[in-house]
## 1
Amino acid sequence: MNAPVPDPRPVLNETHTVPRRSSPIALEILDEALERRLTGGELTLLFEEAALHDLGRTATELRLRRSDPDVVTYVVDRNVTYTNVCYVDCEFCAFNRHKGDGDEYWLSLDEIKAKVQSVIDAGGRQILLQGGHHPNEKIEAYEAMLSELKAEFPDLWIHGFSPNEVQHFAKVSKLSTLDVLKRLRAAGLDSIPGGGAEILNERVRSIIAPKKTTAREWIEINEEAHYLGIPTTATMMFAHIETYPERVEHLLRLRESQDKTKGYTAFIPWTFQPGNTPLAKIPELMEQVEFRGYLGATDYLRTLAIARIALDNFCNIQASWVTQGKSVGQLTLGYGANDLGSTMMEESVVSAAGTTHALTQGDLNEMIRGAGYTPAQRDNGYNVLKVIEA
């Protein structure tokens, strides 16, 4: 009789439960976290054996040490998604379109300038400029986009073009990624968003985003940017097919890279939103997503707190109220976050998956004051522009 074939899928959490009380060793590790850097094994154990309230207590203490203890920041800006044409076809994305789909677009410079003007009128001076991987547009199109925006809005901070876009521009234009970065910087790029990191593990990336950068390439492009003096952020999209050790691998890769360059300004984690995505239509993958059972906000807050604990060389940890909503967004300030991101005057990618939370600057001020902090407006370099008094 043949032996049964083992299930190749990773076990995400064998107990399917979240601990109500921390194990003795988890408590010991949390105490150690206040004095030293934790190992990957210790961080994995915290995912498995630390209670949420204990994680929050340690993360808050470390947040108070690593960033301004009195202030929580945010930026007034707008996401400007210049195109939805993209042939990368990530399994988690509900946003991308191919040419001929009927609802694809490429924004004109006049349309982009009108969006920038709306930010200026709202008291901001930054935009997040990102788009899909258009198969035909070469580096000259993106240089023109940057230089014309800078010519009309010389004080505008352009936070644009993820590492994956940089790699795509290089392939289409037959350039190195370093050359692309040099040209984008010369045209007016100020900083780079850390989108496309997903989970920095090759098993996961080969399933959900096989046409994107590898984990190594994503890190290398960020480090090239840092070498040129271009700061970047780093993200993590989790709660899909990854395991806890793979989340920890992601954090350790970022920590190691930050040790080398000091070029990351913030870490921003958010949860996978399955609505309308290709992944949601693949039963064997959705079974892995659903394997945990519903952990919801507790999983988000646990991961946020462990990120604050793990990333001892990151000052800023940004909360994702865009995926979590206002109430959980405020709770993040008790689990290691010191920044509430953006007023998000426009957002296209998460909303395409059916998740829509809209907050005003007044909402963010209210959330911050209600958590016992003082709100402050910053730029995309995480420099405080204005403390907002009551």
## 2
Amino acid sequence: MKGFHFSHFDPNDQSKSTFDKLLDLFMQLLTYTSGDVSEALNWLTQLDKKYQLTNEEYGLGDFIDDLKEKGYLDENNQTGEIRITPKTEQGIRKRSLEEIFGKLKKTKSGEHSTFKPGLGDDINPETRPFQFGDMLEQIDFVSSIRNAQINHGIEAFSMNEDDLEIRETDFKTQTSTVLMIDISHSMILYGEDRITPAKKVAMALSELITTKYPKDTLDIVVFGNDAWMVEIKDIPYLQVGPYHTNTIAGLELAMDILRRRKNPNKQIFMITDGKPTCMKVGKRYYKNSFGLDRKITNRCLNLAAQCKKLKLPITTFMIASDPYLQRFVTEFTETNNGKAFFATLDKLGAFIFKDFESGKRKTVY
């Protein structure tokens, strides 16, 4: 029977409600099932059967009803199809952000501000005397009028240059980032799920930028045989396909996107297993999955050099441990003068976030 259940209040008990616990698990499962609600609910049912996640007072049927009522699921009355809503998509991104940030050590880094004062968004509490060349918008009129009254009296108001005070603002750097995600078949080979951590990082990074750094831009590029852009709302639905790895197409698209961005700070993040196996020559695909093909790798290195000339640093997050692949990524990184992290899947998010945040603290001249 549905209703309210009252129990003794314990201020030290920080446990969540049954709905919130199930919601956290449901959000995680949606990431693994690429947004397939039916499959996620089937998995949740199996987990409930094994671990008794629900009880007689609140079952999975109640949970599904609450998901619909609270706007997490939308059911088509004609077809009976159940889909997740934009509220759920944002919830998945928020949980990914919390999950990754929860693993990071607390530091004082992570702000966009530089040591240089300038025309920014955040106003400093301190003021300073007016100097020649300061703009009208920087004058703190409250402090300046107060100075004029103190210096010249209030009977006959008078203000001169010595009365003026300037309130500075902190200069904030803006960054345009392209996150490239490898969705080739190798991202799920050998019994290792590499695409799910990559999706979690993409969702968390997008949530961080849209909420904390709204003036930054983030574009998501996925690459298999070809490369194409996806919207932030589409990230939970990404799936690995029967593709080869056309790193070249991904880099070319990322470079084209960043050429159109007006921000002075631009960068490319690339999550891959590090093995380019495909490129397009005319209308046909040139493919070779057996080792590293020199024709393909040379083109990748040429693009890395072009990015260096365009001042587009590439940070590669390598999630494979093969020595010959790591050697190629090292050469690729040296050609671009970028950075490479040979990350394990459980540390991928921490690597990307630390690098992204540290990049915000660089001074732009």
## 3
Amino acid sequence: MILEKIFKLKENNTTIATEAIAGTTTFLTMSYIIFVQPAVLSSCGMDFGSVMVATCIASAVACLITAFLANYPIAQAPAMGHNFYFAFTVCGPIVAGGMGYPWQVALGANLISGTLFVILSFFGLRELITSIIPDSLKNAIAVGIGLLIALVGFEYGGIVIGTPGTLVGLGNPKYPEVWLSLFGVMAIGAMVALKIRGAILYGIIAITLVGIPLGLVKYQGVMSMPPSIDPTLFKCDPIKLFTKPEFLSVLFVLFFLDLFDCIGTVVGIAEQGGFYKNGKIPRVKQILLSDALGTVVGALLGTSTVSSYIESSAGIQAGGRTGLSNIFTACLLLLSLLFYPLIKMIGGGYQTPQGNYLYPVIAPALIVVGSMMIFNVRKIKWEDPTEALPSFLTLAIMPFSMSITEGLSFGFISYSILKLVTGRIRETHWVFHLVSAAFIARYIFLKT
């Protein structure tokens, strides 16, 4: 049988039926990105429908690449955290702390980052790159991104609002959108606690059904032909990225986030799936290459960094062991293109009588996803002040400044300074301290 030859089903002790169930399970746990991604990227001027199409196609293509190139059940899709960096930091207005790049240039940065990742995947430099950043900071970065995502979720749900004097405050609990968002958080949280696969997707559906009679969600239909991808297709502009001095930090953040996400996800999934052999993960170079190619495809189509999804662990728990699982996930992603009215209804947002634009249906998903990223805080070496303070600054500055770049800057600089004054600077690779110096130079020459 051709599937047996390609995916080695017997060798991996699995069947077509098992792989089908696993692929479907993975899709259910990750499908929230189909609603969230267009909502996030449309905030920086991108076409909602085009982003949705780009997200589904890029994710499906990346899943297929992983299936045939690496033969692992590791699904791919636009990464949470990367999309917020793209929309709010790279494309965010300068007055709000962003860099003010057009979204076309941000896509160009993604294209360059993905291409660099492809090159490094061939030359096997991943070990050096990942080793220069201390484990405490790696974990703090994940926590900081989680807090940033959760904060945006609180804002999208009207739970947290801008307040003069204190900058942020609690939204009016009498407003229906606040109650709808809180209902969503509890509904998704309960299903997660009960270990229901697809909890976030089912939660989004429940919130939508409750929101329709409340007038917070307007019914627009369920199925239609997919919208055009032309507004974002091949619109990436890597050349104009270099017109501002911030281009180095943009490429640095995009590249390292993708690398950390990929390696962290692969290591975790390999441990769960029992993929290690003699202490190593077979075909790890192919996994990294698949991840990198997914980012390149996503940039060309019109979506932010595509990376390996930790939600794939749900599919592995359901028995997935080969790339055939990814084939089923890819087919479901492509099938989602026919449900554009439903996706627009869920992710399109709602304008309150006060003039604020909120997203009460997807806000709970962001809050819950953010909470899931907090567990890494326990891996930080809190007993060591030279590790603890930089880690704290990293994870705190990200949400408070609404910028992943600033969180990294504060973390890197403080880490190098504390290691220097305690005579422990040699504990960290010299390249790390070189990056810290570059961050300091960035602040010195930064135009305000």
